[in-house]
Amino acid sequence: MTQADRLQPGDPFPAFALPDAAGQTHQLGDYAGRYVVLYAYPKDDTPGCTREACDFRDSAALRELGVQILGVSADDAASHQRFAEKFSLPFPLLTDAGGDFLAGIGAFGEKNSYGKVTQGLSAPPSSLTRKASWSKAGWRSRWTATPTPSLTLSAATRRPTHE
Predict the structure, then answer these.
(1) Which bin fits 52, alpha (ψ -120 to 50), beta or left (φ > 0)?
(2) What is the pLDDT of residue 135?
(3) What digits encode the pLDDT tens for the residues 87-126?
(4) What residues does 71 pair with on adjacent strands?
(5) Catalytic residue among 49, 84, 107, 121
(6) How far apart are CA 33 and CA 85, in angstroms?
(7) Per-domain residue ranges for the chain?
(8) Which CATH superfamily is domain 3-147 in?
């Protein structure tokens, strides 16, 4: 997948229907009118992914805004349940078993790690990430290109796009 194929700022966010650890299906339309942060991560219970999940869990700013956090990876429901229980994660972890949704947003595909080609969560040498901050002037966000070893796609919106 090329950078041009990846989800870009201003693109409508693709519709999804993904199950959580309890088997409940979550769809973008379920969160209409709410702030939503959907983040993609490679694997449950790994150091970087655990740190990221716990940062979302512990974010007072996101709680104050009533933001709904959704994590998504290709891990199965049982793995998500163990991970969520172990770290008291209060938000759903969604399963994208075949990686189709993640591929559709440009986060899953072929990657090369030390000469070994595999399928998984991927990031280009420079990823597009959204930086958000809260100030007295209100909620501000901007998109920046930054070198990063892993990709986190975050979207905060009041009016999710529906297909």
Answers:
(1) alpha
(2) 44
(3) 999 999 999 988 888 888 877 777 777 888 877 776 543 3
(4) 39, 93
(5) 49
(6) 29
(7) 3-147
(8) Glutaredoxin (3.40.30.10)
